[in-house]
Design a protein that fits this description.
By secondary structure, the chain is an alpha/beta fold. It has helices spanning 16-29, 40-46, 79-92, 103-114, 140-161, 176-185, 199-211, 239-251, 271-289, 309-314, 321-330; strands spanning 3-8, 33-37, 49-52, 96-101, 120-124, 164-169, 189-191, 217-222, 255-259, 295-300, 303-308. It folds into two domains: 3-139 and 269-314, 3-Layer(aba) Sandwich (Rossmann fold); 141-265, Phosphofructokinase domain (Rossmann fold, 3-Layer(aba) Sandwich). Helix 6 (176-185) packs parallel to helix 11 (321-330). It is elongated and about 70 Å long. The protein binds 6-O-phosphono-beta-D-fructofuranose. It is found in: Cytoplasm.
């Protein structure tokens, strides 16, 4: 193998740059050429490639986002789009790929191996931590710290004004980010897609606290809980607004809503994310050199592991419900 490509795809995540840096420098260390592909799969289709060297990845380990840019590409989901990508890769002499991204990116990666016959290794990069086959994904630790910083600040004003704040966190259909930050941030109620909850119970709890003199609350809501409220609310509305209105109506408390949104995707990666990304980037190159393909690297305990992408995509990520329970007991 002489030349590999690297791309980032889907929602960006802090630590993606550290992963790119590691892929490039470890590949160069092994005498490989590395091509950077801009805008994920869209760049494969457009042939938006550039030769990378050591200095292409200088001074990026501390930066959030991705220097390779990212996109969600509809055209790559079509066989025609993928054939264009194959043609471009053949023209450029790209013999294998490293794909850094979440489940949509891995779905694309699988097609690259199976349909286009190009070896590919996936690196899990998403703040959602919604991928099986790894305890944590690149970017999640930084996002959790961002959420905690936000909760700390919101708590200051919540206590001063004796208000209930409903804070909505990202994560698609996965409540990991919410559970962890609820536990670490001391949330008074936690709503995630994986758990049934009774809004009356939550309101009664807040009323009881009010009677005991506690006049501010932090309610953490995962963006994915919305499905449960389909019949009651406007589908385009964030669940936090619906829940906030309901709490206000039932408890009489003054409520405010904060949608943390894309704030959670930015910022300088934590040490944990940088180290994880550096290790996974290196492992991806080593696995390609060892002849592996169609696998995603993960971490279990201190060890890097890898699983077939098909297994990763067909397995639901389990959330540690013990942590959820602890979060509610401690609240
Ligand atoms: O997958 C990462 C993520 O940030 C999710 O948490 C969120 O639902 C989604 O991406 C937002 O996507 P976009 O940036 O395309 O609006």
């Amino acid at each position: 193998m002489n030349k590999i490509g690297v791309l980032t795809s889907g929602g960006d995540a802090p630590g993606m740059n550290a992963a790119i840096r590691s892929v490039v420098r470890v590949a160069l260390h092994h005498g490989l050429n590395v091509v950077g592909i801009r805008r994920g799969y869209a760049g494969l289709i457009d042939g938006d490639f550039y030769q990378m060297n050591r200095s292409s990845v200088s001074d990026i380990i501390q930066r959030g986002g991705t220097i390779l840019l990212s996109a969600r590409c509809e055209e790559f989901k079509t066989p025609e789009g993928r054939q264009k990508a194959l043609h471009n890769m053949q023209q450029e002499g790209i013999e294998a790929l490293v794909v850094i991204g979440g489940d949509g990116s891995l779905t694309g990666a699988q097609k690259i191996d199976k349909e286009l016959g190009i070896p590919v290794i996936g690196i899990p990069g998403t703040i959602d931590n919604d991928l099986a086959g790894t305890e944590i994904t690149i970017g999640c630790d930084t996002a959790m710290n961002t959420v905690i910083d936000a909760i700390n600040k919101i708590r200051d004003t919540a206590t001063s004004h004796e208000r209930t704040f409903v804070i909505e966190t990202m994560g698609r259909r996965c409540g990991f980010l919410t559970v962890m930050t609820a536990l670490a941030g001391g949330a008074d109620a936690i709503l995630i897609p994986e758990m049934n909850y009774d809004l009356d119970d939550i309101c009664n709890k807040l009323i009881k606290r009010q009677e005991m003199g506690r006049l501010h609350n932090i309610v953490l809501v995962a963006e994915g809980v919305g499905e449960d409220f389909k019949t009651n609310r406007n589908l385009d509305e964030s669940p936090a607004f619906f829940i906030s209105r309901l709490i206000s109506d039932k408890t009489g408390q003054e409520t405010r809503v904060i949608i943390l949104g894309h704030l959670q995707r930015g910022g300088s990666p934590t040490v944990r994310d940088r180290v994880l990304a550096s290790r996974m980037g290196a492992k991806a190159v080593e696995l390609l050199l060892a002849g592996e393909s169609n696998i995603m690297i993960g971490i279990e305990g201190r060890e890097l592991v890898y699983h077939k992408i098909s297994e990763v995509l067909s397995t639901k990520k389990e959330i540690d419900m013990g942590l959820y329970e602890l979060g509610t007991i401690l609240s």
